[in-house]
Amino acid sequence: MGFIDSIKSLLGMNGGQKKSSGPAKSISGSRKHEGTVTYFNHKKGFGFITARDMDKQVFLHISEIPSKPRKGMDVTFEIQPDPKGDRAVNVAEAN
């Protein structure tokens, strides 16, 4: 799924396509992941992190990170399943 498709999916703009009724695939667990913020919109309060150990973008909400997120920021995080897909939780700037 590309960047634009990720945004459309999050905003419920699926182009008239029906969403699958099956459970979303999750890569959750309490394991810490490392990644990079690849996009963040401060006006809307969300963005995406790309994990280094997998080729997947994970949703990031501003409430999950104590510092001001920016594109290119290295972070550590956990992944939590969400009805719309996986989301990053307990996000912290990497040292």
Report what the structure shows.
The protein is mainly β and 95 residues long. The chain has one helix at 3-10; strands spanning 29-41, 46-51, 57-61, 74-80, 87-93. The protein has one domain (3-10, 33-93): Beta Barrel (OB fold (Dihydrolipoamide Acetyltransferase, E2P)), CATH 2.40.50. The chain has one helix and five strands. The chain has a five-stranded antiparallel beta sheet, with no helix packed on it. Strand 1 and strand 2 form a beta hairpin. It is globular, with a radius of gyration of 13 Å. The model is unreliable at 16-27 (pLDDT under 50).
List keywords for this structure.
95 residues; mainly beta; OB fold (Dihydrolipoamide Acetyltransferase, E2P); five-stranded antiparallel beta sheet; 1 helix; 5 strands; globular
